[in-house]
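Practice problem. Given the sequence and the SMILES for pyridoxal-5'-phosphate, write out the predicted structure.
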Amino acid sequence: MSLGNGRHYLAIPGPSVMPDRVLAAMHRAAPNIYAGGFVETVPGIVADLKAVARSTGEVAIYIANGHGAWEAAACNVFARGDRALALVTGRFGAGWAEMVRALGVRVDMVDFGPRAPVDPARVTEALLADTGHEIRAVLCVQTDTSTSVRNDIAAIRAAIDAAGHPALLMVDCMASLGCDRFEMDAWGVDVMVAGCQKGLMTPPGLGFVFFNARADAARERADCVTHYWDWRPRVSPPMFYRYFDGTAPTHHLFGLRAALDMIAEEGIEAVWARHAALSRAIWAAAEAWGQGGPVALNIADPAFRSHSVTTFRAGPVAVALRDWAERTAGVTLGLGLAPGPGAESEAVAGQLFRIGHMGHVNAQMVLGALGAVEAGMRAVGIPFGAGGLSAAAEAVAAGA
Ligand SMILES: *Cc1c(COP(=O)(O)O)cnc(C)c1O
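Answer key:
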């Protein structure tokens, strides 16, 4: 007998839950990719993506996962031998930096550790030390999905400006776009990368690179760029075929069209508010549990916690808890990711679990996942403080 039979909840931080409406939109025959209704939908998708990102700049769409978008963004900006400053607050910040380094860019990494956000004062300091203005760009992640830290992007822009430094600001919003407030224009972000499989609720396969005119000026001297990754033909294609440099990702675009419609119907501000309210329920449960046991939030300060993913520290029983939840309660929790390279970091990963709460997620799903965690803690013998589930229910009632 298993209590896990029934509709499964994949509560990992990407791929996220796909709405039936997205799946249904994809369930159709191949369209004509040269003319007609399908071709006519693409400019609207581009416009709606920019609206979600709060950008009046450009967006290039690639058939790629997030790693592809990382490389696409970097190769349009850098020339070999350039310098970059990478602000690392977890595995993904480090991963992007390593990829940029592999292109032949000299990357200085500033690591803020696995439990803290970027400290803007250190950004200003690092840029002031670059008196020759060799650093072309500052790389950072809005929500680092390994640690679930959420960085203050506007504060990082202010820190760059405070140093009077011309570096571009490049932000990874893979885990936060469509979940957490993000204002590309207002916050002075020059390049932003995202994928379709998290807040945008579409099966993995589309990578997005948003950029403004300052970033496009850097493209002039970028010698890392190749024909396929070049963002220019993808934003003002001489013919439809060049939007994607080949066959369009037809069914992903059908799915994305439906997802963008859902976001527009709910309203992006309401989408952000829903994610914030559901996050508060998770934090309330965790804070109560932590009063009497090892399960605790990785990020102490609520101002720097993601609204789309939550990383828990659970001690050595994290793996048993995840196994129990998946097999017995029908919810797959995210596994721990090493916050950085090295054996010590790997050991930490085994003591973490994560809940993905991005995209097509509502109160009953979050309350269900929390209930499964509490039942699992009982089942595998993890002590915990009382009142977590009622604290979560209270937060949901208040948030609604
Ligand atoms: C998921 C994610 C990525 C990588 O995306 P893939 O599609 O797995 O390549 C990069 N950065 C962040 C912050 C992510 O959450």
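Check your answer against the key. The chain has a mean pLDDT of 96.
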